[in-house]
Specification:
single chain, about 170 residues, 3 domains, two-stranded antiparallel sheet, 6 helices, 2 strands, about 5% strand, elongated
Amino acid sequence: MTETKEQKKIETAPAKDALQSLQPLRPEDIFKQAEIDYEREDVNGVRIIGSFIIGTIVVAIVMFAISQYFIISREHEMLESALKPENNLLRDVRQREEGALNSYKVIDEKKGIYQIPISEAMKIIADEAYQKKKAALEAQMKESAVAKDDEMRKTELRPTEMKKSGQR
């Protein structure tokens, strides 16, 4: 019978294991048996920090470029929309709205409801509010003047009253 190398290794392996089990294993022996190697040098800190800094700079540049791209494209879009000719439908709608806001019209003659231009309506409302405020202020001033007069009359002593009280 011919034995192959693999069979010899298998037969001799238990004998080696028996000898090794008697001796405590060192870490180097474990790595040798398992055919595992470990890193024998330290990590290069300068390389890691340099990579981090370069990566941060690249990300910042990309973010800035994207931001500028969107700003420029938004400005370009706004410029195009501003220079684009006005739509006829939109122009007609604006004319109708302008006509409705700036014209006179009878809405209900029985109730006395009429439409006037919006600019005149705003003037009328502002004048009414001013007149109400002015009237309220005048009334308040008149009330305070009357209250002052009453107070002065109460505190003021007449000459006859002064003689009676003996203050003269």
